[in-house]
Amino acid sequence: MGIEDQGARSLATLARNTLESKIDPLLQDQVMVPEMIDLRNAAIVQWPQSTPTHLPIHWSLVNTSLGKALLRDGVRAVKMLIALGVDANSMLPCGYRISGVAALTAAGKVIEYLLGVPEIRIDEKVNAYGHLEETAMVLAYKTSQLQIYGQFLAANGGIIPARTMLYICAIEPHATLISVIALNADVRKSIRTKHPVNHNTPLHAAVLNEDEQMLTTILELGRKTTTIINSFAVFLNATNSDGQTPLMLAVEHKMRDAVTTLLEQEGIEVNARAAGGRTALWYAARVLDVDLCNTLRHFGADEGNPAPGRQMWTTKGTPFNALLEAYDQAHEEFTHNKNRLEANANFERAKNKIERIGWLLDSIGSNPNLPDHYTLRVPRNTVLENFPEWQDIFT
C-alpha cells in the first residue's frame, strides 16, 4: 500500500469515526431520521430541483465534494469518498452516475480507479432520465473521449458489453458501430452478447434502427464470425427472454424493410415459436399489418397452429386470438375517443384489417377454436360489439 493510499485510508477512518460519534446519538434519540433512496430504482426517484447557480452546470457538480472531485479529475478525493462509504455506482442529484459524470468530464484518472473497484458496474444505465439505456461507454464515445472508451473496453476483456452494444445497434448510425469495433473490440463476442435482463441481442436491436445499414452490417459481421458452435443460423434466430427472434421483433414493430431483409437470409426460421406459441404471423396479425401477413406467407409462414398434442401449452392461441387482442385495443381506443372526429374512421379501418387478415387465416387453416390462456375466449364463439362481420369469417 502506498503512502498516498495509507494517508487517504487513515483520513477516511478518522472522518467516519467522527461522523458516527456525532450522528449515532441523534439517530438513537430520533432527533434525526435517515431518509433512504433505493438507487436500484433510480429511474423513478424524484430528484431535487436545480438551485440557482451562476455556472452553466448542475449545482451538484459545483456544490458537492464528489461533484468537484469529478470536475477536476481528483482521484484522491473520489477514493476517500468511496472509502467513507459512497457507492461507486451511485447517482449524483444531477441524475447521472459517478461513472457517467467521469466520462462526460474526461476524468481519466477517476475512470481508471473506478474500473479497479470490485463493485463497479460498467454497463449500467447512467442516466436517471428517459428510457434509453445510455452507459458510461456510450457517453465516452459520444463526447469523443476515445481513450476513456478504450479503458472501459479493456476492462471488459475487449468485449463491448450488452447495454452499450444494444444502444449503439438500436440508436446510432451504422458508422458508429464500425468505428467502435475498430477500437480493438472482440467482434464475434460483442455481436453475440445478450442484454442481462431481456436477453435481446445486437441483432434484435438492429432491426429497430432507422438506419437500414445497421442491420446489414450486423448480418455481415455475424456471417463472417461464424464457427461450428456459433453458426449463422443460431445467430440469426437467437431468442430473447420472451422467446422472440429478431424476425418476430421486427414484425411486432412493423419494420417492413428489416422483415424482408431477414426473410431473405439463409437459415431464417419463419415458423419459430415464442412464449405462448406465438409466431411471426401471430405478431403480424396482432399489429394488423395485412402486407406483412402476406409477405410472411410468401416466405413460407405456416398457419400458426400448435403442434399436435401441445394445445394446452399454447397460452396465446393462434393468429386468430391475436386478432381478438387487436380488436380489444381498437374498440377501447374508439370508446375512449368516440367524441373525436377521427375515432369512428380509425375503428372502421381496424375492423376492415381484422376482416381481411381473418379471411387469410381461414384460407390457410388457422385454428379459430382454441382459447388463449388469459381470457379463455374462443375466436369462433366470440361475439364482438359493433362488428358482426367477424362471425362471417367462420360461416
UniProtKB/TrEMBL annotation:
Pfam families noted in UniProt: Ank_2 (PF12796)
Swiss-Prot/TrEMBL keywords: ANK repeat, Repeat
Keyword Repeat among record annotations: yes
Gene3D superfamilies linked to this entry: Ankyrin repeat-containing domain
Entry keyword annotation includes Repeat: yes
Spans of repeat ANK: 242-275
Xref: PROSITE patterns: ANK_REP_REGION (PS50297), ANK_REPEAT (PS50088)
UniProt cross-references to InterPro entries, sorted A to Z: Ankyrin_rpt, Ankyrin_rpt-contain_sf
Protein name: Ankyrin repeat-containing domain protein
Source organism per UniProt: Aspergillus leporis
